[in-house]
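Lab notebook, bench 4. The sequencing result for the construct came back, and we need a structural model before the next group meeting so we can plan mutations. Quick request posted to the team channel:

Model the 3D structure of this chain.
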Amino acid sequence: MTTTPPDDQSDLVARVRAVDGVTDVYSPHSTLTRIPGLIASATGASDDRLAEIAVSIRDGAPVVAARIATSIVDSTADSARRVADALLANTPADATITIQVARIH
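Done. Here's the predicted structure in C-alpha cell form:
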C-alpha cells in the first residue's frame, strides 16, 4: 500500500476545502493510527491539524478516502457528491472514492 506525497496531499485537501458546503476536512484514519498526528497538533508541531485525504493502492487501483464536515445551510448529500466529483477530477479513472461525513455544522 502506498500513500501520496505531502505536496499532493495538501493539494487534495485544498481542493476538498474549496468545495461548496464543506466546512472542514479531517483524517479518514482511525484514532489509533492518528496518535502521532494528534500529539504533533497538540504541541504545535503540526501546521494543518490532521486534515488529510488518504490515498492508497488496493489490488492495483487507487483508493481515495476523505472525511469531511459540511454546512447545515447546504445539502450534505450534495456537498459529498461535489467532493467526490472534485476528487474524481484529480484521480485516475479506475479510482475508488469514499466520502465520510463526520460532522454537519
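The two ends are 34 Å apart (CA to CA).
Will bring this to the meeting.
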